[in-house]
Amino acid sequence: MKKKIAKILKYTLFTSIGVLMFWLVYRDQDFSRIRDTLMYHAQYRWIAFSLILGLFSHISRTLRWKIALEPLDEHPGTINTFIAVMLSYFMNLLLPRMGEFARCAYLTKYEKIPFPKLLGTVITERIVDMIMLLLLIVFLFLMEFDKLIRFGHDNPAIMSNARQLIQSPFLWGGLLLLMIAAFLIFRKRKEMKLKNKVIHSFHQLSEGIRSVLSMKRYKAYIAHTIFIWTMYFMMLYVAFFSLEFTSHLPLIAALTTFILATLGMVAPVQAGIGAWHFMAEKALGLYGVESADGKLFALLVHSSTNGMIVVCGILCIVMIPLINRNKRTTTKPEQSIT
């Protein structure tokens, strides 16, 4: 009962933060102008094209995950893996970071793969994606240093929080302790003949994390990673052509907007609601887009992207019993996670 209450309170808190941030961003907007622009002036063929590119990125993420599972001798079905990926996006709309656990639980249930192994590959995936984002940030600093300095000057609170996060001794100390613990457990596991389920699960988790080091198709894994992030960026760039006041902006403006808005997704709210809009609007302002226009663009892109996730998520939920009607939903004894 206490766990359910805690979950409800957590969900309510995150939702409230998102709603508050969204209200703060859009409270002074002319909604009749937003309505007229979206109804009569937006070019939705570009939005449709953007969503198709997004779907390609999700398919590529599915195939990349399958490659990461190969060293573990796990070969889930492509359709089930795709459903798991789409469910992760869908569940993240309900509760931040919930999707990573949901997609692992789904494959554990229908593909009989141990949950800790799956979670380990997802952790590795997140690390790889973080490296890609950091590389893009470095590239952006080299290309648009003056504009980013101006952004930091205009938004000191954001830069202060970012510095505190990067410089946090708790962050780096925690990562160091985790690496040391994983190494010691891996080194001593044979001598200790551990049978404890918690330790066994931790070993499977570390095995999943280390799977990237032993994959044979690492070039394909890297290629999928580059393709995924390219599609993410192209989704935003293509959407620029849907509105007149962003259609003339250069490629670098799209990259700046993409990276800064992506950083807004770090906020502990569903799908970066409010934070994504704020960062996108500020980024577009660096290239001369008025605040009201930037907020309108952010509303259109964020709403259409997450609308697609909702539709795909619901379709996947409907498909689950059809795809798995001949499969048992209990895990094998040796693969149980409880």
Strand content: under 5%
Question: Helix proportion of residues, in percent?
Answer: over 70%
Q: Which value, in Å, is the CA radius of gyration?
A: 22 Å
Total number of β-strand segments?
Answer: 0
The span between the termini is 20 Å
Low-confidence stretches: 190-195, 329-338
If you average the pLDDT, what whole number results? 81
Global shape: globular
Q: Could you state the order of secondary-structure elements as H and E?
A: HHHHHHHHHHHHHHH
SS content category: mainly alpha
Number of self-contained structural domains: 1
Number of helical segments with 4 or more residues = 15
- Report the sheet with the most strands, covering strand number, pairing sense and barrel closure: none
Structure write-up:
- The protein is mainly alpha-helical and 338 residues long.
- It has one domain.
- Helix content is 80%, strand content 0%.
- The chain has helices spanning 2-26, 31-41, 44-69, 78-94, 98-111, 115-143, 145-154, 156-167, 169-192, 197-214, 218-239, 244-247, 251-264, 275-285, 291-323.
- Helix 9 (169-192) crosses helix 10 (197-214).
- The longest helix has 33 residues, at 291-323.
- The model is unreliable at 190-195 and 329-338 (pLDDT under 50).
Task: Give the helix/strand layout.
Layout lengths: L1 H25 L4 H11 L2 H26 L8 H17 L3 H14 L3 H29 L1 H10 L1 H12 L1 H24 L4 H18 L3 H22 L4 H4 L3 H14 L10 H11 L5 H33 L15
Helix pairs in contact: 3-4, 3-11, 3-15, 4-5, 4-15, 5-6, 6-10, 6-13, 9-10, 11-13, 13-14, 14-15
Quick synopsis:
By secondary structure, the protein is mostly helical. The chain has helices at residues 2-26, 31-41, 44-69, 78-94, 98-111, 115-143, 145-154, 156-167, 169-192, 197-214, 218-239, 244-247, 251-264, 275-285, 291-323.
